[in-house]
Amino acid sequence: xxxxxxxxxxxxxxxxxxxxxxxxxxxxxxxxxxxxxxxxxxxxxxxxxxxxxxxxxxxxxxxxxxxxxxxxxxxxxxxxxxxxxxxxxxxxxxxxxxxxxxxxxxxxxxxxxxxxxxxxxxxxxxxxxxxxxxxxxxxxx
Length: 141
Description:
With about 140 residues, the protein is mainly alpha-helical. It is about 45% helix and about 10% strand. The relative contact order is 0.17.
């Protein structure tokens, strides 16, 4: 690890980058509070790409994440045991699909910066492509 040689700032994204991210998501029907599942966005991406791209770039430039995208829908997911026992459920927060798109863009840009400036420790396995708890375990052994 070495000191950063440059300052991080978000870069505007192209429509192609946004579309690629949207199309990479699984075809899920679950939706956040806005009730818009990823599958709907994927099927309509050619019609809505310009406004989505504009909103994302405006947010990146201003540094303001839209308040509505911070709202999640919490749903109970059954674990095991009696379906009548509330302790047999765990809460899961479902974010709006547009929030997931934005998060992926932020993740991609941050990861690129961290990697290009050698700011990640070799032992880092979480959140990195091609690495996992299994690769960490194998490296440890």
